[in-house]
Write a structure and sequence with these properties.
The protein is an alpha/beta fold. The chain has 3 domains: about 5-60 and about 495-550, Urease, subunit C, domain 1 (Roll), CATH 2.30.40.10; about 80-195, Diaminopimelate Epimerase, Chain A, domain 1; about 200-485, Alpha-Beta Barrel (TIM Barrel).
Length: about 550
């Protein structure tokens, strides 16, 4: 059998059981035909075979982001970005908001995303009054980078039917001034409820996820585990499937049954409807039933067993009681769903593990692969329970790079067990890495860099005892991600018969200075045997004549 495409002279990081590094790989259709030395793989080349000379570059299995928000990332691209380099102050942001309002029909939403008060000159949120000065005819919402907090103007409050007499929702805070007037800041479930009114149209969502898919592919990401969006989760999943069927979205999607607003309602709707985890094909599959148990690690609003280091009187927000958690996820487990939940703080993780133990005691299941999204503060006693239960975790090493300085302030020595990749590996707990984008940066190479170095963006060591090796970090972004979605037999490593999903880097990652991994770039991405991204025109330089190769 002859190959359609052959890659030669590379650092082919297979991520097989032996962590072999080969030279070459052959592709036929959408599958890997063979892996081996240049001499072995050249035998599969014919005159029509496209031969790509990697010239020592790393070729990795297609990268799998095991926790990312496809719809939110995409629709954010349609709004005002607070992370643009020129946005250094609130005044800079206000200029952009005014421009957006000027081009937006009266009464329609003006949305901004990626807001981080710590990175602006004023070190504060805008006030409701300041946003009213921009417009009283447009509802305005500015979403913090964590997606757990927002600030809105008076028009937005009016549309959301929130007044000074509105009580705080369970698991949320409508912030007030000392005199009882509303500041405009919405925290946790209050923010989630406001965004139900600020949701995008179906047409905007479909356009957004197409744009997001293109960005993911440029980063070498070939598969994602979508962690949900605002609004009606069932409608969002329907739109995803339509976009994938129309070939507008090329990245493979494992869709969690979860929503940032009233996730329990969506889980109940899906458990009643009939489909369960695993339904679908290699382009789109139904994933785990997902809830939110606590808040944001950098808010900080995560649920901790002890008070925060900078404020011992505060130990976060919990969304559900143990009884509610057991009931909602217990039913989903009984019906055949893989389970998961956003759980950042050790108190939230403990409650989720309690839930899993109860569900498995009532309805034993040997290969459930129930998950914990983030698993932020994973103390040794919790790790022991994770291993015993066979739980899969999806930590976010990039958080340590982006938020590490704040984590030291908020959690002190607890950073030594935050997203503890080294502990997970040593205890045999499968950890599949995710970015949580757009909460933070998408780039998997930055995630690998963060896991290997454990230094903050400010250069401080943050739990350096949890550093791992480059090959271990690559596995967490490939095979482990495939395992977390029950797909390790078809992807996640470069082995004959598996899907031809690859990411080609600009150089050798295994010989790269560990401190410079974040400077590396993806140059080519292949999904299903098709090159979808090629920044250096490697395909244009490919040889298609056997004689010229000899």
């Amino acid at each position: 059998m002859k190959a359609d495409t052959v890659f030669l002279n590379g650092e082919v990081i297979t991520v097989d059981k032996q962590d072999r590094v080969a030279q070459a790989v052959a592709v036929k259709g959408n599958r890997i035909l063979a892996v081996g030395s240049n001499e072995e793989i050249q035998k599969y080349a014919a005159n029509e075979t496209k031969v790509i000379d990697l010239q020592g570059r790393s070729l990795l299995p297609g990268l799998i982001d095991s926790h990312i928000h496809l719809t939110i990332y995409g629709t954010n691209l349609l709004g005002v970005s607070c992370i643009e380099p020129h946005v250094q102050s609130l005044d800079d942001l206000f200029v952009d908001l005014r421009k957006k309002a000027a081009e937006t029909p009266q009464g329609q939403w003006v949305r901004a995303w990626g807001f981080n008060e710590q990175k602006l000159r004023e070190k504060r949120y805008p006030t409701r009054a300041e946003l009213d000065e921009i417009s009283t005819e447009h509802p305005i919402v500015i979403i913090r980078t964590c997606n757990h907090t927002s600030v809105v103007n008076s028009k937005a409050l009016e549309i959301a039917k929130i007044s000074e007499n509105t009580p705080n929702p369970e698991g949320g805070i409508i912030e007030r001034n000392q005199d009882g007037t509303l500041t405009g800041r919405m925290i946790e479930n209050a923010h989630m409820q406001v965004f139900e009114y600020a949701s995008y149209t179906n047409e905007e969502i479909r356009k957004g996820i197409q744009l997001a898919s293109e960005e993911f592919i440029k980063a070498g990401i070939t598969s994602i585990h979508d962690a949900g969006a605002y609004g009606d989760g069932a409608e969002t999943i329907r739109i995803m499937q339509q976009a994938i069927k129309a070939d507008e979205v090329k990245v493979r999607v494992y869709a969690m049954i979860g929503s940032l607003t009233n996730s329990h309602d969506f889980v109940k709707k899906m458990t009643d409807a009939g489909p369960i985890t695993g339904l679908g094909d290699d382009r789109f599959k139904i994933g785990p039933a997902k809830l939110f148990t606590d808040g944001s690690s950098v808010g900080p609003t995560i649920a901790t067993r002890e008070g925060y280091t900078h404020d011992p009187s505060d130990n976060g927000i919990i969304y559900y009681s143990q009884e509610e958690l057991n009931r909602i996820l217990g039913l989903a487990h009984e019906k055949g769903f893989q389970l998961t939940a956003h759980a950042q703080g050790d108190r939230a993780i403990e409650m989720l593990l309690n839930c899993y133990e109860t569900a498995l005691a009532k309805h034993p299941q040997s290969n459930h692969r129930h998950r914990i999204e983030h698993a932020g503060i994973s103390s040794p006693d919790l790790q022991k329970r994770m291993k015993k239960l066979g739980v899969v975790v999806t930590p976010n090493p990039v958080f340590m790079y982006v938020n590490g300085d704040k984590y030291l302030e908020y959690y002190g020595d607890r950073v030594d067990v935050m997203y503890p990749a080294r502990d997970f590996i040593e205890k045999g707990i499968i950890a599949a890495f995710g970015s949580d984008a757009p909460v933070t940066f998408l780039d998997p190479l930055l995630g690998i860099h963060a896991a290997v170095n454990r230094k903050s963006i400010g250069g401080k060591s943050v739990g350096e005892n949890q550093r791992i090796e480059i090959m271990e970090a690559i596995r967490a972004y490939t095979w482990n991600g495939a395992y977390a979605s029950f797909e390790e037999n078809i992807k996640g490593s470069i082995e004959a018969g598996k899907l031809a999903d690859f990411a080609v880097l600009d150089s050798s990652i295994l010989t790269q200075d560990k401190g410079l991994i974040k400077e590396m770039k993806v140059e080519l991405t292949m999904i299903d045997g098709e090159v979808l991204y090629d920044s250096q025109n490697l395909c244009a330089e490919a040889v298609c004549d056997v004689k010229s190769r000899k």
